[in-house]
Amino acid sequence: MADPIKIIVPVGSLGAGIRAEEVQYGIERGAHAIASDAGSTDSGAAYLALGISKNNRGAVKRDLSILMQARAQANIPLLIGSCGQAGGDAGVQWTLEIAIEIAKELGLNPKIAAIYSEQDKAKLKAKHAAGKIKPLAPLGPISDELIDSCDHIVAAMGPEPYIEALKNGADIILGGRTTDTAVLSAFALMHGAPAGPSWHAAKIAECGAQCTTYPTMGAGVLISIGADGFEVEPLQQRNRCTPHSVSAHMLYENANPFQLVEPGGVLDVSNAKYDASDERVVAVTGSIWTPAPYTMKLEGAAKGRYQTIMLVGIEDPEVLKRLDEFHDRMLDALYQRVRNTIGEAAGDFHISLRLYGWNAVSGMKRDANTPPPLEVGVLFVATAETQSMATQIAKACNPYFFHFPVNLDRELPSYGFAFSPADIERGPVYEFKLNHVVELGDPLELVRTEWIDLSSREVA
Q1: Which of 108, 222, 333, 427 is 20 to 30 A distant from 368 in Cα terms?
Q2: Cα–Cα dist 185/197, whole Å
Q3: Domains of the chain, with CATH numbers?
Q4: Residue 178 · residue 206 · CB < 8 Å
């Protein structure tokens, strides 16, 4: 490699707020490509099961407009992975429609590759029959019934489908579910950059400015991948990277801070060295890539049971002094109330009380010396087989939230419902059914690519 390969990573996720001046700075610094993630499993299974994005259309269109204009100006490729949040076919198609709309409005005519990674259940059953699918903790072995139970299943792509699209002349690549690092490393790997630095640079840059000293000061970074390592630089010129801020990002969403498993191999940074090139830029060397049998992670999501919620505020000082006791006694009383008033018809139901302002996030008991809060919000959640039953359970429990006492020999307290009617039907619970890997001989085997060449036809 004569010169480093420079890639703009404009933001941690498309739609989160790209800054046009940062992208322009990256282009002026000689960027060869723009690459960004657009989603993940972070926000739960609903987005895959429903085929929707958590970002609103306007936010995605704004960011994509900036990138498409910059791409056209610099005549460099634009790669987007995990389109539409979960990376299902609906998310890719949604993003593609936005891109075509932008092209029409701005008079652009890119050649677009849409890469789909949603899976056909029959193919996965065949892989299962061949013993090619293994579970990831904490899930157990796969079965045909488990495959059938999913509303949508995606396979997380590596860089190979993006490289294939680039070789075939794609100006813009809109990919389905992809590992964050794969979409960022693809261009460098295609152009001969060593695998260790390419994958490591992608891991550091996956969340944009999160690897900088002041993550809220900017949105993106520029990675420069060379023969011996890589450099990372904030796109916001007032921001800076340090060896600490860069090396620390290996801890992000990674059980092992020294190894990262990806399709086709493992990144090992055990001997990586982080040095400040100047006050803003960090150079990294010593990253190693070890090839391994090729696998793609399967994510499958489906609709489950139904929930109805109620939100109640408590400011009574006696209750607040004994919140754990109150929680346990109230929960026991609510279960008994449902069994007495609804009985066996309630089915396999579940009730939880989440004390916001106390321990709702962790669910752990507080230390005995923890001072009582000034108030708490009690989130009541009833889960049942049908929406109607979840609501009936909430209605049965409703009276207990007016005056349930913690001191039986004192005047009854009063609590405040946040809304009227108090019970709010939340709808179904969505959950991940598949968290497995499928072994493949061909990285493109489970991937489909469609081409939309706007230079050869009028944009409708």
Answers
A1: 333
A2: 9
A3: 5-117+157-294+440-453 (no CATH), 303-432 (3.30.70.600)
A4: no
For residue 129, count other CB atoms closer than 10 A to its CB: 10
Contact 303, 333 (CB under 8 A): no
Q: What would the two tokens of residue 92 be?
A: 């890719």
Residue 128's CB: how many other CB atoms inside 10 A?
18
Distance of CA 171 to the CA centre of its chain: 25
Phi, psi of 52 (to 5 degrees): -125, 165
Q: How far is it, in rounded angstroms, from Cα 164 to Cα 416?
A: 60
- Average pLDDT of each block of 10 consecutive residues along the chain (460 residues)? 93 96 98 96 94 95 98 98 97 98 97 98 98 94 97 98 98 98 98 98 97 95 97 97 96 90 97 97 98 97 97 95 94 97 97 97 91 97 98 97 82 90 97 96 97 73
CA distances from 72 to 28, 65, 92, 215, 396 (A): 14, 11, 21, 28, 61
Please state, in angstroms and rounded to a whole number, the distance separating the CA atoms of residues 98 and 5.
29
**Contact status, residue 88 vs residue 51, Cβ threshold 8 Å:** yes
Plot region of 30 (φ>0 → left; ψ -120 to 50 → alpha; else → beta): left
Give the tokens for residue 410. Answer: 């004192």
Model pLDDT for residues 170-214, shown as the tens digit of each residue: 999 999 999 999 999 999 999 999 999 999 999 999 999 999 999
- Judge contact between 309 and 379, C-beta under 8 A: yes
The DSSP bridge partners found for residue 431 are 302
Reduced 3-state DSSP string for 253-314: CCCCCCEEEECCEEEECCCCEEEECCCCCEEEECCEEEECCCEEEEEEEEEEEEEEEEEEEE
Sequence-distant (≥ 6) Cβ neighbours of residue 444 within 8 angstroms: 160, 161, 164
Q: What are 230's two structure tokens?
A: 């890589």
Cβ–Cβ under 8 Å, residues 64 and 157:
no
Name the 3-class secondary structure at 452.
strand
Please report the pLDDT score of residue 253 as a whole number: 85
